[in-house]
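Appendix B. Extra example for self-study. Work through it before the problem class; the solution is given directly after the inputs so you can check yourself.
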Amino acid sequence: MNHTINPVKRHRERCREVRADMGDYLDGDLESSAGAAVRRHVRWCPSCRRMLRNLTRTVSGLRALDAPPVGADQTEAG
Ligand SMILES: [Zn+2]
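Solution. Structure tokens for the complete assembly:
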């Protein structure tokens, strides 16, 4: 049984996945496969690229404004 996937629908699902991964990507948790997928996606998806830009600005702005002295949950070193 062949079920043709609607490319638009597929694209939207991809966008959802990428946007869900953006938070971790900005945290630096996704330097491997998922991070690469985000980067590759935003290269051809303007709307996601725009969103990633906004997120990047927001995150870096928040970090600059209020940087916690100590408080890292990251115990595992990659
Ligand atoms: Zn997208």
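Self-check: The CA atoms of residues 4 and 76 lie 43 Å apart. If your reasoning did not lead you there, revisit section 3.
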